[in-house]
Fold this protein.
Amino acid sequence: MIETIRFWAIIVLIGLGVFFTFIATVGVIRLPDVYARTHTASQADTLGAGLTLAAVALALGWQQAAVYCVLLLFFVFITNPTAAHAIARSAAETGVEARLDDDGTGDRGHDTEPVERGTETGGEPQ
């Protein structure tokens, strides 16, 4: 009975870990600017890696390798958000601006090229 619960807990953790890692991958590919990309990398990727490492530690049981997995889990939880913050801060300090829509929402659809202000409707830049 306990082994069955443990088995299904491992399956659920791995499934959720893969799901969040996939969401982070799609976010890094599809999001428009460095700020949105670092956000998805620090949030979803950290959660995906954390859940997957938790599944590995649960699968290993009480062994020395499981302790290493837990230490690695803490290392990932500390370094991923710190790296994302450093990237976003560096982008802000070098003058990279967030890509915003005309209404300020940041949703530009599927545009891949930057658009100058004032030329969205075909007019001259202001």
Observations:
- The mean pLDDT is 83.
- The two ends are 71 Å apart (CA to CA).
